[in-house]
Automatic annotation (TrEMBL):
PANTHER family cross-referenced by the UniProt entry: HYPOXIA-INDUCIBLE FACTOR 1 ALPHA INHIBITOR-RELATED (PTHR12461), HYPOXIA-INDUCIBLE FACTOR 1-ALPHA INHIBITOR (PTHR12461:SF105)
Boundaries of every JmjC domain copy: 214-363
SMART domains: JmjC (SM00558)
Signal peptide feature range: none
Pfam families: Cupin_8
Upper classification of the organism: Bacteria, Pseudomonadati, Pseudomonadota, Gammaproteobacteria, Pseudomonadales
Protein name in the entry: Transcription factor jumonji jmjC domain protein
UniProt cross-references to Gene3D superfamilies, sorted A to Z: Cupin (2.60.120.650)
Length: 374
């Protein structure tokens, strides 16, 4: 068995390399086994710093055996939450767990696939295709050419046209589950959709956000997407709340095609194509997404000088509009007042089937769609 100091140093190096800050900082205490050297703590701010010993008043704690700690170091795909006793501030614990997890087993492969598709990117002027509608073939060709779409008249009545008051009356009692503690912007003290709406409307200066938690099951049928069968999409996520003048979602890129429908309020997206990655300081790629450290809404060119070369595009998404964002595009989101969006991802197996047909299409068909998208 490797000696404990070596395991500890390897663990610390991985967390420091992968760490991405959340919306607040604090102290996380580690207790590994019975030895004094197994007591150390992490200070989380805009980076992470480790110190030996026991902190007097940590915000959260993580306890595990030495055997489990060794397994975690030697098998980074093993989630920290499996077997460790974790208590205290869940937002801080999630940030540590995400950094400790290391790169996902399938994330790097997905990233390589995205990079290989970059040659298909159709550089339009303007680069974002904004139009009332499109048919299913046009949608698939746009995804093939990595062209973002804003479709202004494609979302039907159903839930997409509901007011916040109607949503509160009809669905306010439904519980919220799957809040992803502060990694992309979630608040953790929410219980129901009604509580979220109340806090967002009447919570004073407090900021509250669902951060992409699962849309409650009874709401799913009211928020279906057009053009493709429901089985082509993942379960919907809810992005709802209020983060005035703060990023609702930190800069990151997803490895699947995203479909984001706006229900209420207005959101501003800043997006950048995959080829801009070299300027955006991306971190480790996890199974489904990759975070970046640079914030285009609050640019810090002293810490991130290469970001001065990054080229961002701005999208304003209004109620009733659908943003289709191809896999690999970086994006961060800001809003004012209460907002509500719902997104789904296209399933990998669905896109594999569609893309196979597209790549087999004659060249003249591709040229026709290039003209139509332009």
């Amino acid at each position: 068995m490797p000696i404990f100091p070596e395991l500890k140093q390897a663990f610390i190096q991985r967390v420091e390399q992968n760490f991405r800050p959340g919306h607040r900082g604090g102290i996380v205490q580690f207790i590994v086994g019975e030895q004094p050297e197994g007591r150390f703590h992490a200070t989380l701010t805009d980076n992470v710093r480790f110190s030996d010993g026991t902190h007097r008043a940590p915000d959260a704690s993580i306890e595990m055996s030495e055997d489990m700690f060794q397994g975690l170091v030697e098998h980074p795909e093993q989630p920290l939450r499996c077997g460790a006793k974790m208590s205290g501030d869940q937002a801080l614990l999630s940030l540590i767990a995400l950094a400790a997890h290391g790169e996902g087993a399938t994330g790097p492969a997905r990233l390589r696939t995205i990079d290989s598709r970059a040659q298909n990117w159709l550089r339009l002027d303007p680069p974002i295709c904004r139009r009332p509608s499109i048919n299913s073939s046009g949608l698939l060709w746009a995804l093939h050419f990595s062209v973002p779409l804003v479709l202004t008249s494609m979302l039907g009545e159903g839930g997409w046209r509901m007011t916040i008051e109607r949503l509160f009356e009809q669905y306010g009692q439904l519980p919220l589950v799957g809040l992803d503690a502060d990694v992309l912007g979630a608040s953790l003290d929410l219980s129901t959709l009604g509580a979220l709406i109340r806090d967002a409307l009447h919570g004073g200066e407090a900021l509250v956000y669902s951060g992409g938690c699962a849309l409650p099951g009874p709401m799913c049928e009211a928020f279906t997407l057009p053009l493709l069968k429901p089985t082509c999409f993942s379960r919907p996520q809810l992005w709802m709340g209020r983060r005035d003048e703060a990023a609702c979602t930190r800069l990151h890129r997803d490895f699947l095609h995203a479909f984001i429908g706006q229900v209420s309020g207005v959101k501003t997206f800043m997006i950048a194509p995959p080829e801009e990655a070299q300027y955006l300081y991306p971190g480790a790629c996890f199974n489904m997404f990759q975070l970046a450290r640079f914030d285009p809404f609050q640019p810090d060119f002293i810490r991130f000088p290469l970001a001065q070369q990054a080229k961002f595009l701005t999208i304003t998404l209004h109620p009733g509009e659908l943003l289709v964002l191809p896999a690999g595009w970086f994006h961060t989101v800001r809003s004012n007042g209460l907002v509500m969006s719902i997104n789904r991802f296209m399933r990998e197996e669905a896109w594999a089937s569609f893309s196979g047909r597209i790549e087999a299409a004659p060249a003249d068909v591709a040229l026709q769609w290039i003209e139509q998208l332009s």
